[in-house]
Amino acid sequence: MIEILVCMGWMAALALAQAGAPSAESVLERFEAKVGGAEPRARPKSLVVRGSIRTPGLDSGKFEQVYLGTDRARWNFDYGAMGSATWGTDGRVSWNTDPAMGITIKEGDEQAPVLRLFAISRGAPWKSVYEKAELKGARSIDDRPHHELRMIPRAGKPDAWFVDQETGLLSMVGLALPDPLGGSEIPMEWHFRDWKSAAGALRPHKIRQVVTAMAIEYVVEGIEADGDVGRDRVAPPDDVREAIANPKKRSKAAPDKGGECAIEMMEPQAVASVRLTIKPTEVSKTLSGVLIEVMKYLGKAGVTPTGPPFSRYHRMGPDELDLEAGMPVSKPVPGEGRIKGSELPGGRIAVTWHVGNYDKLPETHALLEAWIKKQTLKSRGGAWEVYWTDPGLEPNPEKWKTQIFWPVE
After folding, report:
1. Would you tell me which of 74, 181, 350, 382 could form a disulfide with 234, CB atoms 3.0–4.6 Å apart?
2. Residues 22, 147: contact at Cβ < 8 Å?
């Protein structure tokens, strides 16, 4: 069987050669010649890219990408009412900040896909990013024939590049970035369109990031090369520097399996939330609307969330739920309309993880309740759930990770 497979691989390569297919290197050399050559882009002093962000169903925002040399980068995102975020690398570690997920730090080979994304976006020569490339075949994208290339890095899994056969320009890159919670990687597609001359090279002015069902559009409005960019422009924010030095200040890594229960001592947590009475069948629809409403209020109030969204069940009945949902914040907020400033209790809290679909959450609540009774502990209020996984980024419900907290005496 092995000999047959080897023979099939050799025959496929021979068929491509006989059909006059170009080599992967020739496809990439043509691409780099089209955009201005590899040498001028190999050692940039600095590069700054600015533009707007458009996400369906949400307010538009702004972005800025700042690169200093070949090993320092910082992307700044302003999502308006939805908060702000940063991605970056200081040449040693890479970071990500998110208004809901907190701070993620990646080191060593784990950050390799992030560094490749920065390099590709900066326009680095392909040989500075990958060890080698292979021509995998052809694929149609937007009804245009493309060369599909298997780009093999020095560390990590291969990426996929798609180069337009007619124009010679890069149309799409497929790669997987690390999951902030430490789970499986998150596959992404980056589409590059509207290539125009800017800062001494052809550069894409429309970029589309696709993560499962979610698409984010970036429209470039300005590009500057070799300007006076100081290290402060690409330095990690203060909270990121603290998280680099102290791992306890980073986002929590979720377990692969849930169900283990423990007691934690926690500080009270200020939140902005909405409390209402609903039917059990209305939870999903209600949460999606409430959380967007709270995020917009926080954006208008200039308050940044300090963690992922939560929902608390003050009372659970077969026909009616007393539900509170919202976002944690760094300081108490006055609220507006039905949005109130509230607090999640501190002190002794029973904690467990649920890994899987939300429809199985009642089973994990029951497991935690049984554990509390077995420890002869008494409840002092309703339990709450914290949703660490964004279903828009992770389509597989079996990988969704939720933390359940239950205050006890």
Report:
1. 74
2. yes
